[in-house]
């Protein structure tokens, strides 16, 4: 590898008038991909893929290249994350001057002065009614993590198993679901280990994880900065306005915080150890059982009669890796009598036209329930003072995004149910907003909701169906 200039890709200057895609200045559109970063990634990926045992000794200077930092900033900005403990937003950075901000950050990284800030702890609801902790880095740390991901991702991606689908370029959750469908419908899997790990991200052992990284990376600065992020303290704000600071990750030497940009890659790398044990240890061949993984979710597709042994083997291997199986959520599913949920879908035996059975997927009841709860929350009286157009602008992306993910298999009946629920909630909200009771069906027609207000409709109306006008 060439030091500081992989593949001959030149770092861009900071002339804000520059508009070339190959040598951009800070003033270019942040939506413009940087060819030099893609060239760097291609070189790193090709090297890693062609030489499975090679180690990379000089990477830190790639992380602080100005084109890499600019691309990292662009991607972080596109994700629109919340501010961290320092309260700094993307708008604040750009108001003060993005070019100078990036140059200062680059100088910190180049001279070894960079130190990460504490994480901001927030809680988000889980499907089971509990809460999931997120550790939000400040934007400065997020950009450096993204820059590290741009450099390390192409190196490690070829090492991951093809059945690890989470957070990888060119892969998504629905590809994992299609793999599961293939395993059931085409390869005859009739027993499925529906597995769950207890708090996977927060229990990954730091020592073993860093050894996974060091197998490919010999750059000491890269490893030291990764350690900084793993050991970062957490700040949680109390209802009284105070702050509580904890150092659980450093004290226990465990965990990679959900919310960190680099965490999905690290989680994939550690789960790869289980995949190696499963496949290279011969369990996949002996049990004829395939593992399909997405982040911390996975299932094991087994032939009839091998599910119990596969589940026992999985428990033993996870214990060796220092991970804990959630026994309350882990179960053996026997097809076709039972179904199971994976990544928001229900998978199993369904019945189509005239009762014809088929293997398929459908949005799970929990996923539908969560969407309806969100629609309900967006149409309560707390929003009565806002313009109607603003409410529709908030509601439409929620429904559109949900439907964009849940578009696999026969979904028209579910879509129609969502359409009816959303229309009903909007009508009720419009009535309450006017200080009146009732469902609003007579006052607000379909034509008024969909054509005048612009409410999204997932299923087109049947032809020649009329509705009273508002």
TrEMBL record:
Q: Which GO terms describe its molecular function?
A: RNA-directed DNA polymerase activity
Q: Region Disordered: start and end of each range? A: 1-22
Keyword terms of this UniProt record: Nucleotidyltransferase, RNA-directed DNA polymerase, Transferase
Q: What residue stretches are annotated with the Reverse transcriptase domain?
A: 105-347
Q: By its UniProt entry, which InterPro entries does this protein fall under?
A: DNA/RNA_pol_sf, Group_II_RT_mat, GrpII_Intron_Splice-Mob/Def, Mat_intron_G2, RT_dom
- Name of one Pfam family that matches: RVT_1
* SUPFAM superfamilies, alphabetized: DNA/RNA polymerases
Q: Origin, by domain of life?
A: Bacteria
Q: Which family does it belong to?
A: Belongs to the bacterial reverse transcriptase family.
Name the UniProt record assigns to this protein: Group II intron reverse transcriptase/maturase
């Amino acid at each position: 590898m060439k030091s500081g200039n992989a593949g001959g890709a030149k770092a861009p200057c900071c002339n804000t008038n520059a508009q070339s895609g190959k040598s951009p200045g800070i003033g270019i559109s942040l939506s413009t991909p940087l060819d030099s970063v893609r060239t760097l990634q291609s070189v790193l990926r090709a090297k890693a893929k062609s030489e499975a045992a090679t180690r990379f000794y000089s990477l830190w200077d790639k992380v602080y290249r100005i084109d890499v930092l600019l691309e990292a900033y662009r991607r972080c900005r596109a994700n629109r994350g919340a501010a961290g403990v320092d309260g700094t937003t993307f708008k604040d950075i750009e108001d003060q001057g993005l070019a100078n901000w990036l140059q200062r950050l680059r100088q910190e990284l180049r001279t070894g002065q960079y130190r990460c800030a504490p994480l901001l702890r927030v809680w988000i609801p889980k499907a089971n009614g509990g809460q999931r902790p997120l550790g939000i880095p400040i934007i400065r740390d997020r950009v450096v993590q993204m820059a590290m991901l741009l450099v390390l991702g192409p190196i490690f991606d070829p090492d991951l198993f093809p059945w690890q689908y989470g957070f990888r370029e060119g892969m998504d959750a629905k590809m994992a679901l299609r793999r599961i469908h293939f395993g059931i419908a085409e390869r005859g899997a009739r027993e499925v280990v529906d597995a769950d790990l207890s708090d996977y991200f927060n229990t990954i052992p730091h020592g073993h994880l860093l050894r996974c990284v060091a197998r490919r990376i010999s750059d000491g600065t890269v490893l030291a900065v990764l350690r900084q992020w793993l050991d970062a303290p957490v700040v949680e704000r109390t209802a009284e306005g105070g702050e509580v600071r904890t150092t659980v990750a450093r004290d226990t030497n465990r965990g990679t915080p959900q919310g960190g940009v680099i965490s999905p890659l690290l989680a994939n790398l550690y789960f790869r150890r289980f995949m190696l044990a499963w496949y290279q240890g011969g369990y996949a061949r002996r049990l004829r059982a395939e593992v399909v993984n997405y982040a911390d979710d996975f299932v094991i597709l087994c032939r009839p009669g091998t599910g119990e042994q596969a589940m026992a083997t999985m428990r033993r291997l996870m214990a060796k890796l220092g991970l804990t199986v959630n026994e309350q959520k882990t179960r053996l599913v026997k097809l076709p009598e039972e179904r199971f949920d994976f990544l928001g879908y229900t998978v199993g035996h369904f019945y189509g036209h005239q009762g014809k059975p088929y293997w398929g997927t459908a949005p799970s009841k929990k996923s539908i329930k969560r969407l309806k709860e969100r629609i309900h929350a967006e149409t309560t009286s707390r929003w009565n003072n806002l313009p109607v157009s603003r409410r529709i602008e908030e509601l439409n992306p929620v429904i559109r995004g949900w439907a964009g993910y849940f578009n696999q298999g026969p979904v028209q009946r579910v879509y129609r149910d969502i359409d009816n629920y959303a229309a009903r909630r909007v009508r009720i909200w419009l009535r309450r907003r006017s200080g009146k009771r009732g469902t609003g069906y007579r006052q607000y027609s379909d034509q008024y909701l969909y054509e005048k207000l612009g409410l999204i409709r997932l299923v087109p109306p049947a032809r020649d169906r009329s509705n009273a006008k508002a």
